[in-house]
Amino acid sequence: xxxxxxxxxxxxxxxxxxxxxxxxxxxxxxxxxxxxxxxxxxxxxxxxxxxxxxxxxxxxxxxxxxxxxxxxxxxxxxxxxxxxxxxxxxxxxxxxxxxxxxxxxxxxxxxxxxxxxxxxxxxxxxxxxxxxxxxxxxxxxxxxxxxxxxxxxxxxxxxxxxxxxxxxxxxxxxxxxxxxxxxxxxxxxxxxxxxxxxxxxxxxxxxxxxxxxxxxxxxxxxxxxxxxxxxxxxxxxxxxxxxxxxxxxxxxxxxxxxxxxxxxxxxxxxxxxxxxxxxxxxxxxxxxxxxxxxxxxxxxxxxxxx
Length: 306
Ligand SMILES: Nc1ncnc2c1ncn2[C@@H]1O[C@H](COP(=O)(O)OP(=O)(O)OP(=O)(O)O)[C@@H](O)[C@H]1O
Ligand SMILES: O=P(O)(O)OC[C@@]1(O)O[C@H](CO)[C@@H](O)[C@@H]1O
Description:
By secondary structure, the protein is of the alpha/beta class. The protein has one domain: 3-Layer(aba) Sandwich (UDP-N-acetylmuramoyl-L-alanine:D-glutamate ligase). It contains ten helices and 14 strands. The strands form two sheets. It has a ten-stranded mixed sheet, sandwiched between helices. Strand 12 and strand 13 form a beta hairpin. Helix 1 packs across helix 8 and helix 8 packs antiparallel against helix 9. The protein is globular. It binds adenosine-5'-triphosphate (ATP) and 1-O-phosphono-beta-D-fructofuranose. The site of 1-O-phosphono-beta-D-fructofuranose (F1X) has 15 residues, from strand 2, helix 1 and helix 8. The site of adenosine-5'-triphosphate has 21 residues, from helix 8 and helix 9. Belongs to the carbohydrate kinase pfkB family. Belongs to the carbohydrate kinase PfkB family. LacC subfamily. It is an enzyme of class 2 (transferase). Pathway: Carbohydrate metabolism; D-tagatose 6-phosphate degradation; D-glyceraldehyde 3-phosphate and glycerone phosphate from D-tagatose 6-phosphate: step 1/2. GO terms for molecular function: 1-phosphofructokinase activity. InterPro entries: 1-PFruKinase, Carboh/pur_kinase_PfkB_CS, PfkB_dom, Ribokinase-like, Tagatose/fructose_Pkinase.
């Protein structure tokens, strides 16, 4: 079974404006609400691709009720822990001449509730896949993903981590199967400016030396670079289309990678389906559909750089 963990889910309130004026009243031309949070997005795309998963994490308040109801309407398996405080955050995604996001902090998670999550994680079996994705509420310890990985280190569980800065760096010693920073996050982690694809390879390799088995660096409209466990360096292009809402493109890429890998254990296929899923979501208001992913996949080319 594939499990996704979203410690800090969200409702994504996507608004389209002609022009965003700071300090003024802005009126939307279109608006949408979607259940969000990185792990939940991964589960939703996995479902599109025909893979069952179970979404774990914390929900709270009226927004938490909404998320659970939408996921159950979509027949997505979930096993969330209800917090008795606060409410699941609402993240505002403004689509105007550029994309602007306001992500909430999310409710506090007390130790008792955190232990309930650990108990669920402890029940995972070998050969399960675990996706740890997204930020954690600011009141929690930055070693949280590391603590989860420590608990399961002796089981043969493939762990995929999509997080930033210390949250990601701290898990590397437990050898996650895959990490997926984007190019900006890679720059932040090493405090450098990436000037070329060679730079991306260089710093991606550093994450590998620090313990990651496979490193996938997504680069938005510039595609993605994968450094595999066996040191192959693969690069993907992107599909052709008009960007509608790139929120969730990275999560779609992670889901596509997992789906592609499970198909035949070939990294080319994993990267190709990952890239197609990422682009297809960027070209949709909501997350991509399987039909659209298939169309975009025919435009994806994988190049070997070494
Ligand atoms: N503008 C775009 N045009 C085509 N494809 C895109 C575009 N943006 C993203 N993608 C596809 O999606 C993949 C992941 O995108 P990106 O690098 O933006 O991830 P991310 O920063 O983790 O995204 P997010 O946090 O919004 O989910 C890219 O590698 C690419 O394949
Ligand atoms: O604040 P985080 O957890 O880093 O990111 C949350 C978020 O931006 O990530 C998803 C897209 O990747 C959205 O659905 C959600 O709003």
